[in-house]
Specification:
Layout lengths: L2 H4 L4 E4 L2 E3 L5 E6 L6 H15 L4 E6 L18 H15 L3 E4 L3 H8 L4 E4 L7 H9 L3 E5 L9 H9 L6 E5 L2 E3 L3 E3 L2 H8 L5 E4 L5 E2 L8 E2 L4 H11 L3 E7 L13 E2 H18 L4
Parallel strand pairs: 3-4, 3-14, 4-5, 5-6, 6-7, 7-8, 8-11, 11-14, 14-15
Antiparallel strand pairs: 1-2, 9-10, 12-13
Helix pairs in contact: 2-3, 2-9, 4-5, 5-6, 8-9
């Protein structure tokens, strides 16, 4: 099946949120890892208050299992059963759509009962059984580009998902390996991903990671997040993925690459102003 020929362009993520290059900017945001119900509800509520000021469609993100930690000692989260219960509570309390990662094919169906969007981690973007299982749920899919992948080759990942009849696919840029640990973002990648016909999401926080660079944990350079967001929005992405936290230094995973909640409004203000101007040219 040719995903370029069948890609739907803009589509509904849920009854209230539509994604596409000329739709309202979608923001996938929240902590890297579920820490507790109270913490998720606090961050979700804060995100809602911030996003009220901007033309943004908010989707809450948190992971119930970080199955790709650098070290065996890395904290993984509460697991699927407890994690989905927490995400369901966030959804019920806030009304926000939910996105979360799945790592194995058997996680797809139960996760789809709660999440509006299923996310394929970058390391797993070629795993055929996982892509087919996620596609078969009918839920929207955010498929992250592997750090090792040419952006043009992501159409083959999309084809696997689309072969199930599910074309509600977003392709997500999250940086490319540069040497052993650093990641770099090639702006051309956002254009090449968009040529697939699917909406493009830019992951601004994982793109500043240094993989495994902190004694068995991933490091990061969060000071580059605002500039990368401005660049991606100017190019014309459909959405942003921004992991954020009230106290990143205390986060159990990816603390150095998460954006402090206190800085998010400034980043979004710039993004929305640039997007309003850039839409005249894309």
């Amino acid at each position: 099946m040719n995903s370029i020929a069948t890609a739907p362009g803009p589509f509904d993520l849920n009854p209230t949120v539509r994604v596409g290059p000329r739709e309202k900017l979608v923001l996938l945001a929240g902590p890297c890892q579920i820490e507790s119900a109270e913490h998720c509800l606090m961050i979700a509520g804060t995100l809602q208050e911030i996003c009220k000021k901007f033309p943004i469609s908010l989707v809450f993100k948190a992971s119930f299992d970080k199955a790709n930690r650098t070290s065996l000692a890395g904290q993984r989260g509460p697991g699927m059963e407890q994690g989905l219960s927490i995400l369901a509570a966030v959804k019920k309390s806030t009304g926000l759509p939910i996105i979360t990662d799945v790592h194995t094919a058997d996680q797809a169906a139960p996760t789809a009962l709660v999440a509006d969007i299923l996310q394929i981690p970058a390391f797993l973007c070629r795993q055929t059984d996982l892509l087919l299982a996620v596609g078969a749920t009918g839920r929207a899919v955010n498929c992250k580009k592997g750090q090792f992948m040419h952006p043009a080759d992501m159409r083959f990942s999309a084809e696997k998902i689309a072969s199930t009849g599910n074309h509600r696919i977003m392709l997500c840029e999250r940086g490319s390996s540069f040497g052993y640990r650093d990641l770099v973002v090639d702006p051309r990648s956002l254009i090449m991903l968009g040529q697939s016909g699917y909406p493009v999401i830019f992951d601004a926080t994982h793109s500043v990671q240094s993989m495994g660079g902190e004694k068995g944990q991933s490091g990061g350079s969060r000071q580059f997040i605002p500039a990368l967001v401005r660049s991606a929005v100017a190019i014309g992405v459909s959405g942003l993925f921004i992991e954020c936290h009230d106290a990143p230094e205390r986060a159990p995973s990816d603390g150095q690459s998460m954006l402090p909640l206190s800085e998010l409004a400034h980043v979004l203000e710039a993004a929305c102003e640039i997007r309003a101007s850039a839409l005249r040219f894309v």
